[in-house]
Amino acid sequence: MLTMGNMIRQNASKLKDKTAVIFQGKTFSYKQLNERANRLANAFKARGYEKGDKVAVLMKNNAAYVDIIVGLSKIGVVIVPMNYRLVGREIEYILQNSDSRGLILSSEYEKELDSIQSVAELDTILVVGGTSQAERLDYESFLLSGSEEEPVAEVNELDTFYMGYTSGTTGKPKGVVISQRSRMLTGMAAAIEYKIDESDVHLCAGPIYHAAPWIFLVMQLIVGGTVVIHETFNAEQVLADIEENRITNAFLAPTMYSFITNVKEDVRMKYDLSSIRVLISAGSPLATKSKEDILAFFPRVELHEFYGSTESAITLNIKPKDIENKERSVGLPFPLVDCIILDENKQRVKQGEIGELYFKGPYLLDEYYKNPDDTKASSYEGYFSVGDMAMQDEEGFYYIVDRKKDMLISGGVNIYPRDIEEVLYTHPDIMDVAVIGVPHPVWGEAVEAIVVPREGKTLTEQDVIEFCEGKMAGYKKPKSVSFLTELPRNPSGKILKTSLRDQYWKHETTKI
């Protein structure tokens, strides 16, 4: 049976004392992980929890997250992982929208519950790290109250595993219903695609509540390897743990790679990084310059970049043999995935033309929770779309041009910000960049670049605009440039262009 609980039960039997999880110096074997998961599952069962009930989780990365993922899977209780950066009203929305019955959180977020009225509707609140509130329960004490025997429950692979919420960058977040089978197959296919087995050690430095870190954590555990969990990302800590734990593979978002490749030379030279064999990127496009920096920093590594979403898991992947000669491509369909590109009339576009990417495969969501309209609007003849624009070359490789909603129209011409961003990333003094449209009295919209200079570097608007000369069509060149010390991003690394547009839309420019 393709369920997370079943996979770990089998690994506990076969691998017993092999290390499954390392977190802040503590190690947990597969046998210990399975016993802790059983205790958590049985403790929830004793409180009357049944298959289909929801338990939300609000905390940074923690070994307890693995207990929860495995334990609740064993009794069919649905996990609702939440972005730990959310605050009162945002937390309340997800608790209510998901129909969560319970909540597990770390003590640092307890104060956020004070302003949430719906918390009173929860019958179980567990606090990792202890609590002084009488109506809340200490996580470890609760876990130890349950039996370590395998829980008795009928759970099958089509039951819901978890419900991940979209980033909410355009409107309210949507609950993405993911089955056990979907994520187990994703983990197995990822292990094959990235050549990962039980001898490997995976670094989990991205937030587990997000789809990609969740997938790769699951991938490494179901094949019997070891997962090293970081509470939050820190570039030097990544390097130190690669050496200490002989980490062999990692998933990191482009922003994380940028911080790593920009550490000072003396810091880089302190650590033995020879164990790293596979690096994987996703979350936002990996600029060509960033790929070059990663391969220079880790010269023997196999670098992959994939395109995916909470709704689809991994959709496209570009392998090391193609990543340097297929500039800007996100590769070919992931195993068992079928992709098509459609125009506005749902007709297939010609090769080389841009359209909306649709995909289907065994890793897709079941539905948007309590949202049949958006589920239907995103579906077409068994395919699904999250609104990304793409094209395909003559060899079948796919290119994500941009988000449909990020495209701007100037003088009736479609402009895709990623084209411009790719050029600006090659500027030696630019650390980060986002391109958006701002109002223009003649053209409707004009291109504005929002630039983060590298540390110690000074740039002017004219420097940036002149750099684009001869590198792109005139209508694509930025008409204005603003500077920030940091771009707003969600924890998965995606630039929050909606926030930037809200901030800069008043920057009407009259430059031609």
Structure description:
This protein is an alpha/beta fold. The protein has three domains: 4-187, Rossmann fold; 233-405, ANL, N-terminal domain (Rossmann fold), CATH 3.40.50; 407-504, ANL, C-terminal domain (GMP Synthetase, Chain A, domain 3), CATH 3.30.300. It is 29% helix and 26% strand. It is built from 16 helices and 28 strands. The strands form seven sheets. A nine-stranded mixed beta sheet has the order 2-1-11-10-12-13-14-15-16, with helices on both faces. It has a five-stranded parallel beta sheet with strand order 4-3-5-6-7. α7 links the parallel β10 and β11. α1 packs across α3 (63-75), α2 crosses α3 and α8 (235-245) packs across α9 (254-261). The longest helix is centred in the first third of the chain and has 17 residues, at 30-46. The N and C termini lie far apart (63 Å). The mean pLDDT is 91.
Question: What features would you highlight for this structure?
Answer:
nine-stranded mixed beta sheet; 512 residues; alpha/beta; Rossmann fold; five-stranded parallel beta sheet; 16 helices; GMP Synthetase, Chain A, domain 3
Low-confidence stretches: none
Ends apart, CA distance between termini = 63 Å
Tell me, rounded to a whole number, the average pLDDT. Answer: 91
Tell me the overall shape. Answer: globular
